């Protein structure tokens, strides 16, 4: 409703009202009610954020330099370094796996998801059904998807009933096959949100461009690589950043898949499980904080570099 | 009148022609699309099959399933459909003295109170930051953006210690204290952009009618934002329903469905599996129902999330 409509509803000329200068007292009252409103809307969230986000994170830095009893020390970092460099080190394995998952995301899930989005955007037969089915893994609880997957690859699962042989101990018990199996699961269920995001990005490309390409005799491959990909580059590069922050801030299905056994741990999972099972008195919290701090210091510049690089790529305006 | 209808006919004809031109595919192109169709179909079936297999086995008797496991013949329909597995879920599935009803209750509590409060605070903050000019406004906005993109690793231990210090570790009341901190997440950006697009003249009309700032927010702005708030709430409800890490870290005595089922899965025997599958099916139903009811909104929202910058 604008002022004119308000005038019609009220049946008065509002310009007269607005021309009357408010008295000093009235102005002060309005100003006060404005301040009261702003403060009451912001107070709880800001205080809560200051305590649980800001102080929570600052406290992590302090904890990294403390013993469980609160004395200052560098011991946590020494322990971390020993954990990282020891043979068969779990931290080392976690770092390696985190990089593997990042590679999987950027080199497999992102390109294939974009390709799927392209075909759905081009209205392939049954695209509406495909869109819903491929989105399902984002909706169905991870515990359900993981259990279904784990049972499928067991020696008595549905695939075994069809005659496919699986090792008796299962693929997830052997360090040689465990991480590739979890990675396969991530790939199998990983296209949901990428597909939708990319479909959204492609829908914003003007159809004239597709018509022009078609008139020039452009095939689907040329159309995808020379038209679609450059135009959705900003969304793609943003996804690379998100996949990196996502990997560092969530442990994915590792807990449900293997509980970190058979060399499947990732950095975030390692921190999660040591926090969850550890106690404050054992010093586990301090070592976890030190490890987190080291990797935050490594991750932040990487994220900033990727952002800076993605901004360097000339954004196409359309 | 005839002129107008003729004009519309022309427009319609041309539109139809345009669509057909883009949809027309040459021989080679058609081959590519057929191959893509086959791959997508196989992939979609592969996503559904394990779930259907689980659904089928959730109706088997515990002993029948155990025998199928030994003989590797789990891919067959039950001899006798045992619907009572679904009733048994509520009697048999327990973790730490919390039964399945209790887990459902915890899930609903975390979603309705936890996510609901968080979204209310997000709406309030994004409205004030986008519509009111005051000292520190830009600062709060920049800090929120900065905090959103910082990948901070390993602050969980600090979170537990902090909650313990306030006496809200493993305490359901904690959500009242921490919900406000979540007001500066990605939903903030979405609602901020929404409120930016709402004209301020609505508020002026309310002021003329004698309303105050609270009236504007609760009677005009909040109802206007309701479609978007509903979508965001459904998305966070689905995420909350499926989240097992938060209760494991901060509410170990209050397992929600996702955490409870994971914990229960650690001690299952083969004979228990049918009932466990039934529990998984029950867990899936609410999210799939929510998705079915709001799929258009959810899908639209996901694609908005991919906006540039």
Tell me about this structure.
The complex is a heterodimer of chains A (about 325) and B (about 300). By secondary structure, chain A is mostly helical. Helices cover about 75% and strands about 0% of the residues of chain A. Chain A has helices spanning about 5-10, 15-20, 25-65, 75-85, 90-120, 125-140, 140-150, 160, 175-190, 190-205, 205-215, 220-230, 235-250, 255, 265-275, 285-310. In chain A, helix 3 (about 25-65) crosses helix 16 (about 285-310) and helix 5 (about 90-120) packs across helix 15 (about 265-275). The radius of gyration of chain A is 27 Å and the shape is globular. Mean pLDDT of chain A is about 85; it is low at about 10-20. Chain B has about 300 residues and is mainly α. Chain B is about 75% helix and about 0% strand. Chain B is built from 14 helices and two strands. A two-stranded antiparallel ribbon of chain B has the order 1-2. Chain B is globular. At the A-B interface, helix 1, helix 3, helix 6, helix 7 and helix 8 of A face helix 1, helix 2, helix 3, helix 5 and helix 6 of B.
DSSP helix fraction of chain A: over 70%
Mean pLDDT score of chain A, rounded? Answer: 86
Sheet with most strands of chain A: none
The total beta strand count of chain A reads 0
Beta content of chain B comes to under 5%
Largest sheet of chain B: 2 strands, antiparallel
Q: How do the strands line up in the largest sheet of chain B?
A: 1-2
> What's the β-strand tally of chain B?
2
Secondary-structure content class of chain B: mainly alpha
- Helix fraction of chain B, binned, reads over 70%
Uncertain segments of chain B of ≥5 residues (pLDDT<50)?
305-309
Which two chains touch over the largest interface? A-B, 115 and 103 residues
Number of helices of chain A: 16
Large-scale geometry of chain A: globular
If you compute it from the alpha carbons, what radius of gyration of chain A comes out, rounded to the nearest whole angstrom? 27 Å
In N-to-C order, the SSE pattern of chain A is: HHHHHHHHHHHHHHHH
Parts with pLDDT < 50 across at least 5 consecutive residues of chain A: 9-19
> Beta-strand level of the residues of chain A, as a percent range?
under 5%
Return Rg of chain B in Å. 26 Å
Distance between the termini of chain B: 48 Å
């Amino acid at each position: 409703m604008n002022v004119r409509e308000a005038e019609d509803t009220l049946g008065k000329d509002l310009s007269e009202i607005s021309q009357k200068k408010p008295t000093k007292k009235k102005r002060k009252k309005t100003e006060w009610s404005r301040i009261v409103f702003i403060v009451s809307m912001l107070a709880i969230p800001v205080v809560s954020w200051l305590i649980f986000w800001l102080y929570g994170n600052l406290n992590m830095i302090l904890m990294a330099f403390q013993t469980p009893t609160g004395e200052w020390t560098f011991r946590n970092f020494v322990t971390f370094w020993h954990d990282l460099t020891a043979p068969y080190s779990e931290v080392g394995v976690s770092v390696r796996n985190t990089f593997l998952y990042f590679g999987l995301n950027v080199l497999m899930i992102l390109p294939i998801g974009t390709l799927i989005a392209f075909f759905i955007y081009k209205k392939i037969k049954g695209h509406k059904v495909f869109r819903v089915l491929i989105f399902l893994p984002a909706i169905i609880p991870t515990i359900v998807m993981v259990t279904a997957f784990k049972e499928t690859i067991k020696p008595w699962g549905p695939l075994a009933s069809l005659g496919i042989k699986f090792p008796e101990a299962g693929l997830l018990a052997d360090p040689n096959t465990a991480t590739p199996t979890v990675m396969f699961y991530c790939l199998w269920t990983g296209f949901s949100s990428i597909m939708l995001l990319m479909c959204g990005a492609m829908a914003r490309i003007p159809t004239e461009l597709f018509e022009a390409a078609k008139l020039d005799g452009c095939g689907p491959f040329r159309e995808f690589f020379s038209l679609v990909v450059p135009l959705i580059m900003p969304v793609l590069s943003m996804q690379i950043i998100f996949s990196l922050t996502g990997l560092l801030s969530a442990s994915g299905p590792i807990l449900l898949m293997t509980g970190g056994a058979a060399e499947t741990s990732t950095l975030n999972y390692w921190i999660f499980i040591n926090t969850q099972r550890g106690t404050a008195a054992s010093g586990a919290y301090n070592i976890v904080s030190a490890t987190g701090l080291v990797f935050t210091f490594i991750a932040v510049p990487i994220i900033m570099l990727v952002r800076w690089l993605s901004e360097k790529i000339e954004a196409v305006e359309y | 009148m005839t002129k107008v209808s003729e004009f519309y006919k022309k427009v319609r004809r041309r539109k139809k022609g345009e669509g057909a031109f883009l949809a027309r595919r040459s021989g080679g192109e058609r081959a590519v699309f057929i191959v893509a169709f086959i791959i997508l179909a196989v992939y979609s079936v592969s996503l559904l099959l394990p779930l259907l297999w689980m659904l089928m086995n959730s109706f088997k008797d515990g002993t029948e399933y155990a025998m199928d496991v030994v003989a590797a013949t789990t891919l067959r329909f039950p001899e006798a459909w045992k619907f009572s597995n679904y009733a048994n879920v509520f009697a048999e599935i327990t973790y730490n003295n919390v039964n399945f009803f209790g887990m459902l209750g915890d899930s609903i509590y975390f979603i309705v109170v936890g996510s609901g409060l968080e979204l209310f605070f997000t709406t309030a903050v994004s409205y004030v930051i986008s519509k009111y000019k005051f000292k520190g406004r830009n600062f709060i906005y920049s800090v929120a953006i900065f905090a959103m993109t910082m990948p901070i690793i390993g602050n969980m231990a600090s979170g537990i210690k902090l909650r313990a210090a306030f006496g809200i570790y493993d305490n359901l009341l904690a959500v009242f204290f921490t919900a406000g901190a979540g007001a500066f997440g990605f939903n903030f950006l979405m609602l901020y952009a929404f409120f930016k697009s709402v004209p301020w003249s609505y508020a002026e009309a309310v002021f003329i009618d004698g309303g105050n700032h609270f009236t504007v927010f609760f009677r005009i702005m909040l109802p206007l934002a309701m479609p978007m708030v509903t979508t965001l709430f459904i998305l966070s409800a689905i995420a909350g329903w499926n989240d097992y890490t938060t209760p494991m870290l901060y509410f170990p005595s209050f397992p929600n469905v996702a955490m409870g089922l994971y914990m229960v899965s650690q001690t299952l025997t083969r004979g228990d599996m049918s009932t466990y599958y039934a529990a998984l099916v029950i867990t899936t139903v609410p999210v799939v129902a929510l998705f079915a009811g709001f799929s258009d909104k959810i899908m639209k929202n996901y694609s908005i999330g991919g906006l540039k910058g």
